[in-house]
Amino acid sequence: MASEFKKEAYRKYLYSSGTIDSLTQVLVMLYETHDKPDNALEFIRKALGGPTKAEYDQLKKEKDELQTKFDVLLKQHAEACEQLQLLAPLDENSLEAKLPSPTSRSSQRASKKGSLKK
């Protein structure tokens, strides 16, 4: 009894989602095709908008190549970050020597304001 309820619920789901209509349309197209394809499953996949086996294989190959490139770039990024961390203390010291301290900047601003008032 529970399995019948599950089957009926699934059947309703397929109808409400439009799956049954889509599959019916594709099967009718296949039936009405004068030159029957060698691979009916490929025909159905293509009619439903999915990639063919060859397209799928090409996409998978492209994905693998992009993943390899991504991994290389990620490794290069990590190495660049490590180098930056090593150089960061040197950069901070050299910048501090070149830039005035915050207290001297505020005193410079105050002296400029005073000279503008005159």
Automatic annotation (TrEMBL):
Superkingdom field: Eukaryota
GO molecular function: transcription coactivator activity
Major subcellular location class: nucleus
Region (Disordered): 94-118
Keywords per UniProt: Nucleus
Keyword Nucleus: yes
Localisation per UniProt entry: Nucleus
CC per GO annotation: nucleus
PANTHER family reported in the protein's UniProt record: ASSOCIATE OF C-MYC AMY-1 (PTHR13168), C-MYC-BINDING PROTEIN (PTHR13168:SF0)
Family, as annotated: Belongs to the AMY1 family.
Protein name: c-Myc-binding protein
Protein source organism: Ceratodon purpureus (Fire moss)
